[in-house]
Write a structure and sequence with these properties.
Length: 314
């Protein structure tokens, strides 16, 4: 499907699931709880935002993200580079995104910062930023440009899901590195990073104190235990959440779904966990049928990945 203009969205027939499925395939999945009116209003708003960004770039040479960030037209990420990421998300999750404006950012947001995305449902803001080094090279430090952009596009596409549980898991599956795919889901929120780092910094401070003053005023071993508690919690939590994903995927495969990760990407954490607990194929089918009766999102999912044939998955 060619990216439509915002003005075209209002013309979509409410009974046309095929068109909603085509929008899903270009990165507009229906959000949890959205009916057709809310869905098309959001898609229209996102497309209008994109059109505003392009218009501002043409008129002034920049788009003002806020008073601290002016995104320059010359740093707009080209369609050719976006296509690198699109090939990854198409194979993993069944969508290709070309509606989210992306920019190379010359100012650094951190020593090892690679990229980030911004979204705001109230004004339909949705952009992503990537380190400027990627403008001329495919790889920088530990990151590849295609996986990094695919990662940020996954965040952009799922921004209305409000899902801390599996958001990072799905985004990190774009990585070619097994270790990043496995550990990427550990850090869900900023709090996870803080609780991970603070005990380690306390341990480091205690060891520096001991080294500088040459004497032990307090035993170090409690600091080692303290600093290992939260990392252990993150690893254990990540292990069990991945189990839910793998079990849910197995249940979907059992009823003939050939690409279960595409379904789960569009599911909520609660739905994933319920699917993982189903005891029979009949229970899985009944659950999905029930969801599809009440949710447009599951009607589209069923059309593309469950009931439809392969032509719906493109």
């Amino acid at each position: 499907m060619i990216l439509p203009a915002a003005s075209e969205i209002k013309k979509i027939d409410t009974d046309n699931i095929a068109v909603s499925a085509e929008l899903d395939a270009i990165g507009f999945p229906v959000a949890p709880g959205e009916d057709f009116t809310a869905y098309t209003k959001r898609v229209e708003g996102l497309l209008k935002f994109r059109e505003k960004v392009i218009s501002d770039l043409q008129d002034t040479g920049y788009f003002e993200l806020d008073k601290d960030f002016r995104l320059l037209a010359e740093n707009l990420i080209s369609d050719e580079i976006i296509d690198e990421a699109a090939s990854i998300t198409r194979l993993l999750y069944g969508f290709e995104v070309r509606w989210v404006p992306g920019f190379f950012l010359s100012q650094s947001l951190g020593l090892l910062w690679g990229g980030c995305s911004f979204s705001n449902s109230s004004n339909y803001l949705n952009v992503f930023l990537v380190r400027f080094a990627f403008a001329t090279r495919m790889k920088w430090f530990l990151y590849r440009r295609d996986e990094l952009i695919a990662h940020e596009l996954c965040h952009a596409v799922r921004s209305r899901f409000d899902d801390d549980t599996y958001e990072e898991y799905f985004a990190y599956q774009t990585s070619p590195k097994v270790i990043r795919r496995y550990l990427g889901g550990c850090f869900r929120t900023r709090a996870d990073a803080i609780f991970f780092l603070v005990p380690i910094m306390v341990l480091l401070s205690a060891q520096i104190f001991t080294a500088v003053y040459g004497r032990v005023l307090f035993p170090i071993w409690p600091f080692w235990i303290f600093s290992s508690i939260y990392p252990a919690f993150l690893l254990i939590r990540n292990h069990f959440e991945r189990k839910y994903i793998s079990r849910a995927a197995a249940k979907l495969k059992s009823i003939g779904v050939t690409k279960p990760l595409m379904v789960l990407f569009r599911a909520t954490a609660g739905e994933i966990k319920y699917l993982s607990s189903c005891q029979s194929d009949e229970q899985v089918k009944a659950y999905i049928s029930g969801l599809a009766r009440h949710e447009l999102r599951w009607q589209v999912i069923s059309w593309r990945f469950i009931n439809g044939d392969s032509k719906h998955n493109g």
